[in-house]
From TrEMBL:
Keywords: Cytoplasm, DNA damage, DNA repair, DNA replication, DNA-binding, DNA-directed DNA polymerase, Magnesium, Metal-binding, Mutator protein, Nucleotidyltransferase, Transferase. This is DNA polymerase IV. It comes from the Bacteria. Residues 5-181 form the UmuC domain. Pfam families: IMS, IMS_C. The keyword DNA damage applies. It comes from Mesorhizobium temperatum. InterPro entries: DNA/RNA_pol_sf, DNA_pol_Y-fam_lit_finger_sf, DNA_pol_Y-fam_little_finger, DNA_polymerase-Y, DNApol_IV, Rev_trsase/Diguanyl_cyclase, UmuC. HAMAP family: DNApol_IV.
DNA sequence: TCTGGGGTCCTAGGACCC
DNA sequence: TCTGGGGTCCTAGGACCC
């Protein structure tokens, strides 16, 4: 069995793009974002600056930190271009995010040489054609290839010889494994397990007791590099959602009703565009102390109408507030739709003549809404998102992340 | 003026059916 | 009639990833 799986990962992607576009930023600690750090350059990471960190905290850690506004269109363009380089070698590419993908080169080594050579060519081309550093890991399994690319960073290549997989793996810390975050790392440390080798030696029943049946089984398999996963080139999204941090707002209808309408508009429009209505609606309400609560309902029929989604979300939020009568302040609202179905575009939520029951959204009211949504979708197709809709005044001021950044994170439905 | 926004998967309890 | 078991779906919460 050869090491045919590549994992390619652009280094500090957004920050590298900024340094590419503005040479004055090269070699300097920079952060993309403002209120919150969306990405940090390696120079900034050296000071402990991390993605997701509040801007103020980042400035404390790194006094010379330079904040730059995001060139989101360029991120999309350059991320796509980098993945396209992989596509030139093999059709078996699984894109994980804007800046990261797996490729299986088993079928093309006769054309392009051994996997390590292909990886070297990919790195050279991305550097020459796009001006960006990219790290690549090469191994026999996805999990190992992913770890190898992390080890290779920044701007490196690591090939794991199939004869020496466990030697490579077992000295590494457990948190390099896919699926081991802060909580699991601490739990493992509690039983004296810090490296992947120590994890491999831990009996299965012990891991299962500590982490649950699925995680125990999975981690043991990964620690011995028994990772049977194949590349999935055509993954469909299983849910779609939108959220908005509100700062601190009173838990009142005049706040959450318009905010939910705005979120429902974002989500439902995406569902309609892709003809993927969904049956389960989930809302999340975060309180002032950052604890959050969810409520969900699963409908008999899938929905994608903006007003319908907004109404259901509103009912669920009211349920949350009834269950938490002492919470007077909310700091975030979220709507997600799951159990997505695939329906022919013209069949969406046409009136079915059923009673006006919340679980049966195909009502007479539904017909008018369907028409209204279609009208709004059409206007936006021609004149852009801002031309019409439910732009929320309530969200206007506190919107901390540009819409363009949200769109980068959206998965293809 | 105390931390973003998009996702995936797992768990556990309860309802319900066979 | 009572008891039990298995499977599936729903709901709420949580860990994790980019």
């Amino acid at each position: 069995m050869e090491a045919n799986i590549l994992h390619a990962d652009l280094d500090a992607f957004y920050a590298s793009v900024e340094q590419l576009l503005d040479p004055a930023l090269r070699g300097k600690p920079i952060a993309v974002g403002g209120g919150v750090v969306l990405a940090a350059s390696y120079e900034a990471k050296a000071f402990g600056v991390r993605g997701g960190m509040p801007g103020r905290r980042a400035r404390e850690l790194c006094p010379g930190l330079i904040f730059v506004g995001g060139h989101f269109k360029d991120y999309q363009r350059l991320g796509d271009a980098a993945i396209k380089v992989l596509d030139d070698f093999t059709p078996v590419v699984e894109r994980i995010s804007i800046d990261e993908a797996f490729a299986d080169v088993a079928g093309c080594t006769h054309l392009f040489g051994p996997p390590a050579e292909i990886a070297t060519t990919i790195r050279r081309r991305v550097r020459a054609e796009l001006g960006l550093p990219i790290s690549v890991g090469v191994a026999r399994t996805k999990h190992l290839a992913k770890i190898a690319s992390q080890v290779a960073k920044p701007d490196g290549l690591v090939v794991v010889d199939p004869r020496h997989e466990l030697e490579f793996l077992h000295d590494l810390p457990v948190e390099l494994m896919w699926g081991v975050g802060p909580v699991t790392r601490e739990r493992l440390a509690g039983i004296g397990v810090n490296t992947i080798g120590e994890l491999a030696k831990t009996p299965g029943w012990s891991l299962e007791r500590l982490l649950g049946p699925a995680a125990g089984e999975k981690l043991n398999a990964l620690a011995w590099n028994r990772d049977p996963r194949k590349l999935e080139t055509q993954r469909r999204a299983r849910s779609a959602g939108a959220q908005s941090a509100l700062g601190r707002k009173p838990a009142e209808a005049k706040i959450f009703v318009p905010a939910l309408l705005h979120l429902a508009d974002r989500v439902a429009t995406r569902l309609r565009t892709k003809s993927r209505p969904g049956r389960t609606v989930t809302v999340r309400v975060r309180f002032a102390d950052l604890r959050s609560v969810t409520r969900s309902i699963t409908l008999d029929q899938p929905i994608s109408a903006t007003a319908m989604l907004a109404e259901i979300a509103e009912a669920l939020v009211r349920k949350v507030l009834v269950d938490h009568p002492h919470e007077k302040t909310i700091s975030l609202l979220a709507i997600a739709v799951s159990h997505l179905e695939k329906q022919p575009a013209l069949q969406l939520e046409l009136p079915l003549g059923l009673a006006d029951d919340r679980r049966r959204p195909g009502t007479r009211k539904g017909a008018a809404r369907w028409t209204a949504d279609r009208a709004i979708d059409k206007i936006r197709d021609r004149f852009g998102w801002e031309a019409v809709g439910y732009a929320s005044v309530a969200l206007g001021q506190s919107r901390s992340v540009p819409d363009a950044f949200r769109e980068l994170a959206e998965k293809e439905l």
